[in-house]
Automatic annotation (TrEMBL), chain A:
This is Phosphoribosylformylglycinamidine synthase subunit PurQ. CDD domains: GATase1_FGAR_AT. It is found in: Cytoplasm. It comes from Shackletoniella antarctica. The keyword ATP-binding applies. Pathway: Purine metabolism; IMP biosynthesis via de novo pathway; 5-amino-1-(5-phospho-D-ribosyl)imidazole from N(2)-formyl-N(1)-(5-phospho-D-ribosyl)glycinamide: step 1/2. The keyword Nucleotide-binding applies. Signal peptide: none annotated. The lineage of its organism: Bacteria, Bacillati, Cyanobacteriota, Cyanophyceae, Oculatellales. The active site is at residues 86, 203, 205. It catalyses: L-glutamine + H2O = L-glutamate + NH4(+); N(2)-formyl-N(1)-(5-phospho-beta-D-ribosyl)glycinamide + L-glutamine + ATP + H2O = 2-formamido-N(1)-(5-O-phospho-beta-D-ribosyl)acetamidine + L-glutamate + ADP + phosphate + H(+). Part of the phosphoribosylformylglycinamidine synthase complex involved in the purines biosynthetic pathway. Catalyzes the ATP-dependent conversion of formylglycinamide ribonucleotide (FGAR) and glutamine to yield formylglycinamidine ribonucleotide (FGAM) and glutamate. The FGAM synthase complex is composed of three subunits. PurQ produces an ammonia molecule by converting glutamine to glutamate. PurL transfers the ammonia molecule to FGAR to form FGAM in an ATP-dependent manner. Keywords: ATP-binding, Cytoplasm, Glutamine amidotransferase, Hydrolase, Ligase, Nucleotide-binding, Purine biosynthesis. Part of the FGAM synthase complex composed of 1 PurL, 1 PurQ and 2 PurS subunits. Its EC number is 6.3.5.3, 3.5.1.2.
Automatic annotation (TrEMBL), chain B:
Part of the phosphoribosylformylglycinamidine synthase complex involved in the purines biosynthetic pathway. Catalyzes the ATP-dependent conversion of formylglycinamide ribonucleotide (FGAR) and glutamine to yield formylglycinamidine ribonucleotide (FGAM) and glutamate. The FGAM synthase complex is composed of three subunits. PurQ produces an ammonia molecule by converting glutamine to glutamate. PurL transfers the ammonia molecule to FGAR to form FGAM in an ATP-dependent manner. It catalyses: N(2)-formyl-N(1)-(5-phospho-beta-D-ribosyl)glycinamide + L-glutamine + ATP + H2O = 2-formamido-N(1)-(5-O-phospho-beta-D-ribosyl)acetamidine + L-glutamate + ADP + phosphate + H(+). GO terms for biological process: 'de novo' IMP biosynthetic process. Belongs to the PurS family. This is Phosphoribosylformylglycinamidine synthase subunit PurS. One of its GO terms (cellular component) is cytoplasm. Part of the FGAM synthase complex composed of 1 PurL, 1 PurQ and 2 PurS subunits. It comes from Shackletoniella antarctica. Pathway: Purine metabolism; IMP biosynthesis via de novo pathway; 5-amino-1-(5-phospho-D-ribosyl)imidazole from N(2)-formyl-N(1)-(5-phospho-D-ribosyl)glycinamide: step 1/2. InterPro entries: PurS, PurS-like_sf. The gene is purS. Its EC number is 6.3.5.3. Signal peptide: none annotated. The lineage of its organism: Bacteria, Bacillati, Cyanobacteriota, Cyanophyceae, Oculatellales. One of its GO terms (molecular function) is phosphoribosylformylglycinamidine synthase activity.
Length: 231, 87
């Protein structure tokens, strides 16, 4: 199974993702420069975190026009897996693969922390490695991570079970006190209706090696590899 | 072809929280301006363009706003257009 990690000017989590897919999971991984548009050999596209194009205008606004993102949209439309992490999630909303938008954190501050998350769905190729209702801890690092969508869109997300991760307390209660950035519905990650596109603000790739203090992000990548290898 | 100057105002939709606006409002209150109501902070963009006529210019500007300059999910925009005297 082959991974692509899109590299934008200003991306800074691209090599962290490649470390997980290539070094930990031993899967072939190709770094794809933003001007490149050939993803023909690729099974999974990862849009990594960082500050693509300096986050000018809005986070992810310029990145969506890159040839690599146009190819990523085609990849997603063909039903193949696309993962957007942090800035990658922002880009996926800007390009229209996922609904809603990510706006300035409620308390104005850039947050760098580890937070508990409730896994809301375990029937996706991304989350089969987690237990239903499991609470995991992942790092977050963002200034614009407050998820926003209008009421109709939120209702649709709930009705279609597209909310995959929610900020929660350690015992799994989803409330205002466990919401770090003001996200509506405590939303930390969502998928599209088909489930092949996932975007999340937390960083699973920064929690995949014990040396970094946690491995709760590893099952996400393992689930994916397992799902695609057995498919 | 005629030249136009456009002023584009991008503002957050009313339903989107504006923590920066709230922070500035409290800053003004600290200065003694307790008479200031809610503040909304947006973006202001100036550009010039060439177009066959005003209708075409407006149509292009709307597309630019919808696709890049604003994000319709969270923002509204307003365009002011002015014909420039050709040299």
């Amino acid at each position: 199974m082959k991974f692509a990690v899109i590299v934008f000017p200003g991306a800074n989590c691209d090599r962290d993702v490649a470390y997980v897919t290539r070094d930990i999971l031993a899967q072939p991984t190709r770094m794809v420069w933003h001007e490149d548009s050939d993803l023909g050999d690729i099974d999974v596209v990862v849009v990594p975190g960082g500050f693509s194009y300096g986050d000018y205008l809005r986070c992810g606004a310029i990145a969506r026009f890159s040839p690599a993102m146009q190819a990523t949209v085609a990849h997603a439309r063909a039903g193949k897996p696309v993962l957007g992490i942090c800035n990658g999630f922002q880009i996926l909303t800007e390009v229209g693969l996922l609904p809603g938008a990510l706006v300035r954190n409620r308390d104005m501050r850039f947050i760098c922390d580890r937070v508990p998350l409730k896994v809301e769905r375990t029937d996706l190729l991304w989350t089969a490695g987690y237990a239903a209702g499991q609470v995991i801890t992942l790092p977050i690092a963002h200034g614009e991570g407050c998820y926003y969508a209008d009421e109709a869109t939120l209702a649709e997300l709930e009705a279609n079970s597209q909310i995959v991760f929610r900020y929660s307390s350690l015992d799994g209660s989803v409330d205002e006190a466990s919401n770090p950035n003001g996200s509506l519905g405590n939303i930390a990650g969502i998928c599209n209706q088909q489930g092949n596109v996932l975007g999340l603000m937390p960083h699973p790739e920064r929690a995949a090696d014990p040396v970094l203090g946690g491995v709760d992000g590893l099952p996400l990548f393992q689930s994916l590899v397992q799902a695609l290898v057995s498919a | 072809m005629p030249h136009y100057s456009a002023r584009i105002y991008v503002t957050l939709r009313p339903s989107v929280l504006d923590p920066a606006g709230t922070a500035v409002q409290s800053g003004l209150a600290h200065m003694g301006y307790n008479n200031v109501g809610p503040i909304r902070i947006g973006k202001y963009i100036e550009l010039t363009l060439e177009a066959e006529d005003e209708a075409v210019a407006r149509q292009q500007l709307d597309r630019m706003c919808d696709q890049l300059l604003a994000n319709p999910v969270i923002e509204n925009y307003r365009v002011e257009l002015q014909a420039l005297a050709t040299a």
